[in-house]
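During the reporting period the student researcher (J.K.) took over the structure-prediction task from the postdoctoral fellow and processed the backlog of single-chain submissions. One of the processed entries is reproduced below for the supervisory committee.
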Amino acid sequence: MNIGIIGTGSIAHAFLDALQHIPSASCTAILSRRQSTAEPLAQQYGIARIHTVLDELLHDPEVDWIYIASPNSLHFDYALQALQHGKHVICEKPFTSTTRELQILIRTARKQQLFLFEAITNIHLPNYQWIKQNIDRLGPIRLIQCNYSQYSRKYNELLSGGLPNVFNPAFSGGALMDINIYNLHLVMNLFGSPRQVSYTANKHSGGIDTSGVLVLTYDEYIAECVGAKDTHGMNFVLIQGENGYFHIEHGANGCRRILIHTGEQQMEYNEQTIDNPLYYELAVFEEIYRSSDYSRCYELLDHSYAVMQTLEAARRDAGIVFAADTMDHPLSSF
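J.K. obtained the following structure tokens:
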């Protein structure tokens, strides 16, 4: 895997750090609007080439994968162009702004016989996989509670009258897309799509959600997902069944440790030996690529598409509108 990176923010740093643990993968190029922004990353991680024009990166013969770590609203355009130029794609969460955009990407990847992945860490973590394999120990599930709250340093800028990308509807920002999405991926990867979706949000005057409560209703149980960028909170996941409960410490994004309570028994589980959670998703993607396992890739895409459908339903319920909602993408061309 010879990867070209789009973006130079903190998530790109974490990605490059994780990449060092994957022997068969390397970053060969990086794209930034300004050469000076990319130079520190290139020097730190030994990246050979810096591009300042997207077309140069897409035509780079030493790049066969594109990793996208740009603002949310740009994910679709960058991913589509990469696929059209014959590059496999790893795109940061949220995959796209709308289901329509994701549908186009999936169709294009299938047509081009290319791999396409959403970089959502938690569903690939060893601790999460243990939960998935042992969920039956809890008996019939009744309640799922998730809280992932992290006060954003950009929130002060918003309060001061600024409009940072992460709180800008034009850039598909907000707490639901940026932070509550981890709760949503965890719940839906375990339990599938809900029967009913409701989202009650604290909204800024600009129309974006700074925090909110997402409720997913299933036939036999209810999941409550809290996500906040305007407060700190106690981050956790509780999966409650008639025979006991799993307590995931520190929230859905990292699944750092699981406390298992069944009857009088209390145990703990933690098999994650590498602190950087991006390593585990990259290891999965590399294995799928190396084994040409398109079926597994498509399974993950089906899951991501279901999550995007739920995100859209939640936004509709809360009256959150993105610029991408009104864009006319030519679906018939794909």
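The committee noted the following: The chain has ten helices and 14 strands.
J.K. will present the remaining backlog at the next meeting.
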